[in-house]
Design brief:
The protein is an alpha/beta fold and 430 residues long. It folds into two domains: 1-327, Rossmann fold (3-Layer(aba) Sandwich); 329-427, GMP Synthetase, Chain A, domain 3 (2-Layer Sandwich), CATH 3.30.300. It is 29% helix and 24% strand. It is built from ten helices and 21 strands. It has helices spanning 12-30, 34-43, 64-69, 103-119, 139-150, 162-171, 181-194, 215-225, 338-345, 383-401; strands at 85-88, 98-101, 127-130, 153-155, 176-179, 205-208, 228-235, 240-246, 253-255, 260-265, 279-285, 296-302, 304-305, 317-318, 323-324, 329-331, 334-336, 351-362, 365-374, 406-411, 425-427. A hairpin with a 4-residue loop joins strand 7 and strand 8 (240-246). The termini are far apart. 40% of the residues are buried.
Length: 430
């Protein structure tokens, strides 16, 4: 089986050997930084004592707060003059998280992203449209360089301007697109309004990610565009996109273990969870030169998919991201994740592309209200039909989240849209 590179099809034994060697190098580099040298000294930890990937539990976690405290450059292993790029999260001066890159770091990132795209069938003859922001946000540039590395004609469309996006898709017969799931569904409604039919477009592959989404949402995207949509995973602290990606099997995302050492831990205790159970993803960079990160707590909730993938790759697979450890809603003593709500809503044919969870307080009691867009053909004047739909949504949600939410049915395209990650929760409790 031909892949983008030989590392793609390393055996489990080869991956274990590579991880052992590269973890040692990552720790040696980290120890040269001001931040990690102090951290290791405080713990009385000698990095050379780490002899295998299994020993990683002896190492300290790194958190987003650590990145903020190390701002702007205390985590660098080499002088700033050796860096060619930085990306930063949003935040005021002194509180942003900043990641630096050497030339080799950028090249490795481009190769990993090209590997991901090649795995789902993207080839040099494809035309690729990147509907993602460019700038301090990492997503746009990472996938852009991956597509160019493959040899694709690449259109850096950026985010927003739906009419222009559709014109580019049609005029240049774009075959591969990178797009945020919520925006993909929003764009589909604009497509219908402007009369763009599936046969006018040449799309066959969509790369989706950047926000948690359900399987039902992915299937809806595939249906409205007539393509295959592949889930991806990345985060700014780990370069951005290219950390993990689905293969053609669409059964979990292969995390590239020659570049990253993944763990799944209990968010409360920090201890490894049993194989196959959900927990918080923790990642150690194995190849990054300028700014390695050791046991970085992502706050993303997922699990390892058990068993071998039929595609032949032995890199472990992550299940779709269920949400963030700090996204959990506690209402009336019940723990609820927004993804549970989305999973129910996307299973109902009458429901449109957007929804909003509103948390309110009445007296001393918390209440959940869910505003749900309804497709135009189902938003009728017959109040009995709308009431029936309202009751059906409420009942299905109650079965899933164990509380009764108030359901507001609204017209399609009436809820606020975002060109970036969708806002799904509005907390008005004060």
């Amino acid at each position: 089986m031909k892949g983008y590179c030989q590392e793609e099809f390393f055996t489990r034994s080869e991956l274990d050997t590579v991880q052992k060697i590269r973890l040692k190098g990552a720790l040696e580099r980290a120890a040269r930084s001001e931040f990690y040298s102090h951290r290791f000294a405080e713990m009385g930890l000698d990095p050379s004592a780490i002899q295998s990937a299994a020993d990683v539990v002896k190492l300290p976690f790194t958190t987003k707060d650590d990145l903020r405290s190390a701002y702007p450059s205390r985590m660098l292993t080499r002088p700033v003059t050796d860096m060619i790029r930085l990306h930063a999260s949003s935040g005021t001066t002194g509180s942003a998280t900043v990641i630096y890159y050497t030339r080799n770091d950028v090249d490795c990132w481009a190769d990993l992203m090209a590997r991901c795209m090649h795995m789902v069938g993207v080839r040099p003859e494809d035309t690729f449209q990147n509907i993602a922001g460019y700038g301090l946000f990492t997503g746009g540039l990472g996938i852009h360089y991956g597509a160019e590395r493959l040899g694709c004609l690449t259109i850096p469309a950026g985010a927003g301007n739906s009419k222009r996006q559709l014109k580019l898709l049609q005029d240049f017969q774009v075959s591969v697109v990178h797009i945020i799931p919520s925006y993909a569904l929003h764009l589909s409604t604009v497509k219908e309004e402007l009369g763009y039919t599936r046969d006018k477009l040449n799309l066959r592959v969509a790369l989706i990610g950047a926000e948690p989404h359900t399987e039902a949402m992915r299937r809806r995207i595939e249906e409205v565009y007539g393509l295959k949509a592949y889930n991806s995973y990345g985060l700014s602290e780990m370069n951005g996109p290219g950390v993990a990606f689905e293969c053609l099997e669409q059964n979990g995302m292969h995390i590239w273990e020659d570049a990253y050492l993944p763990e799944i831990v209990n968010p409360e205790t920090g201890e490894h969870v049993p194989e196959g159970e959900v927990g918080e993803l923790v990642i150690t960079t194995l190849c990054r030169e300028g700014m390695p990160l050791i046991r970085y707590r992502t706050k993303d909730l997922t699990r390892f998919v058990q068993g071998d993938c039929p595609c032949g790759r032995r890199h472990r697979r992550l299940d779709r991201i269920l949400g963030r450890a700090d996204d959990m809603i506690i209402i009336k003593g019940v723990n609820i994740y927004p993804m549970q709500v989305e999973n129910v809503l996307m299973s109902i044919p009458e429901v449109g592309q957007n929804y909003l969870i509103v948390l309110e307080r009445e007296g001393y009691l918390d209440q959940m209200r869910v505003k749900v867009e309804v497709k135009d053909e189902f938003f009728v004047e017959d109040m009995r039909e709308l009431k029936g739909l309202q009751n059906r949504i409420s009942a299905k949600l109650r079965d899933e989240i164990l509380i009764t939410a108030r359901i507001d049915l609204v017209e399609q395209n009436s809820l606020p849209k975002s060109e970036g990650k969708a806002q799904r929760v509005l907390d008005l409790r004060t």
